[in-house]
Structures are given as structure tokens and as C-alpha cells.
Amino acid sequence: xxxxxxxxxxxxxxxxxxxxxxxxxxxxxxxxxxxxxxxxxxxxxxxxxxxxxxxxxxxxxxxxxxxxxxxxxxxxxxxxxxxxxxxxxxxxxxxxxxxxxxxxxxxxxxxxxxxxxxxxxxxxxxxxxxxxxxxxxxxxxxxxxxxxx
Length: 149
Hints:
The protein has six helices and two strands. The longest helix has 14 residues, at about 45-60. Helix 2 packs across helix 3 (about 45-60). It is about 50% helix and about 5% strand.
């Protein structure tokens, strides 16, 4: 008798897989997403729908009505999604200075120089701060995903 080992996904892994499918394939129904996910036999349709609904609630994916259901898509590229996640993580921290200090300390010299260049070229708001979500062209600044709700 062969024993199957069912390992739990790490936190966020299913969301990552779903987003990867949407980035590669464009607009899809939940069933189409399920069919393109790895380990389809171990994943229920309702788990995919729940994951897509949560991602939509977070503003990470968009959806439009199609018949009785929805078609889902991801409005940004993978770099945009990384920037959005970084912002979400930072928002959850009470001490931004400490979190950013540790982040910058862990950067390679090349990435640190890139961050410095991006900050130096960022538009300045009338109050002296950086205009949110308005990095220079090619800056990788995350768009406002919340507008896609």
C-alpha cells in the first residue's frame, strides 16, 4: 500500500500560486485557475474561489461579472505585486524607521544605490514629502490596487 504524504502549504503559498497563474494567463475563471495550479488533485474548487475572493478583497486582483460567476485578472506585473506586498508589510509595523533601517541594511550596494537614486528623482509634494504612488518612470512604484475593488 502506498502512503501519500500531504504537506500543508506555507502561509501565502496558494495566493502566490494563484497570482502566478493569473500573471501568466490573463483573465480566467476560478475553474481555469484551478486547472492551471500545481497539485490540482488536492485542491478543491471552493478553495480557489475563496482565495480569489480574498485577493479581490485585498485589491490585488480585479474581477468582472461573466455569466453567473466572475473572471479574475491581475492588474500589475510581478514587480508591482512585490511593491504592493512590501507596502502592506510596512503598514503593519508600528516602527517604520526600525523596519526600513533593517531593510536598507540588508540591501546589496547596487540595490541601495538604486533606492537612493529613486528617492532623489521622486516628485516632491507641496508639503515637502514624496508624492505617494508617483515614482518616476520605470521606478516600479506600485499602482493604487485599491482603486480596482
